[in-house]
Structures are given as structure tokens and as C-alpha cells.
Specification:
- The protein contains two helices and eight strands, in the order αββββαββββ.
- By secondary structure, the protein is α/β, with parallel strands linked by helices.
- It has one domain: Immunoglobulin-like (Sandwich).
- The strands form two sheets. Strands 2-8-7-4-5 form a five-stranded mixed sheet, with no helix packed on it. The protein has a three-stranded mixed sheet with strand order 1-3-6.
- The longest helix is centred in the first third of the chain and has 28 residues.
- Cobalt (II) ion binds next to loops.
- The site of cobalt (II) ion has 6 residues, from loops.
Length: 156
Amino acid sequence: MRRRSAVRLAVFAAGIALAAAAQASQAQTCEATLATDDTIRFIPAHIDVPASCTEFTVKLTHTGRLPKAAMAHNWVLIRKADLVQVARDGAFAGPDSDYVMPGDKRVIAYTSITGRGESTSVTFPVKALAAGVEYLFFCSFTGHSPVMQGTLTLKP
Ligand code: CO
């Protein structure tokens, strides 16, 4: 009798540990950290967003040394087909608007502009994404949009 209850307790404890681990890994996958520096790239250049997440957070870090006016970055999420026009409108909007046209409905989410030593983040609802759509994120800082890009996928 005593032995059986000890076994039950062990099984119960293992169940709790598994549930806690599952919760922890789910929390981790509802955010991504992208590193930037004095080069024109995101590391990594791909993000998977699990459809099980309610919200998703993207953190952007900048570890470069160049002045902000010369080498700054942001993170702008769009549908791939909208890149050229969103980038053009963002360039006109300029630094006061983080190089994103105010109220641009094509922009799903975006961060502020970061300079050396800075970091920023944005959280957006995952329901803003649809399955089967090609999403692109890019940096809309002057001259970066043709190269500084990555892809984002909603994972069922
Ligand atoms: Co950039």
C-alpha cells in the first residue's frame, strides 16, 4: 500500500514537471530576439511564429559602434508583396516616424529605430497573421530595405 502510493506520487510529480517544461518552452517560442550590428542584416533572418501563441514579441538589439545617424535599424513586418511601396513611403516619412508612414495599414507590426547599444521590442497579436501567406520583415532605415530582410512564417 505504501509502495503503491509512493509510485503514484512519483508519477504525479513527473507529470507536473512535464507540464511545467511544456509551458516554459511555449513561453519561449512566443518571442524571438534578433541581433543587429554595423552590418545590414538580421541574425537570425527567419522567425517561426507558432499559431498556438496569442501574442508574439520581437526584440531587436544593436551591438554596433557606428553613429545612429549612419547605422540604425528597425524591424518592420509586412506581406512580401508590399515591400517596395512600404519601404518607399517609410523613406518619405523619415526618422521622426521611425521610417514608417504613420497609419500604414500594410504594416503588421514594427519597432522603433535603434542605434548602437540600444534595444527595442514590439508585441503583436498572432491573429494578425494568416496561414499560407509569405511574410517579410525588413529594416526601413535609409538604404537598408533591399538587403536587410528576413522571412516570417506562421506555423500551424
Ligand atoms: Co538596418
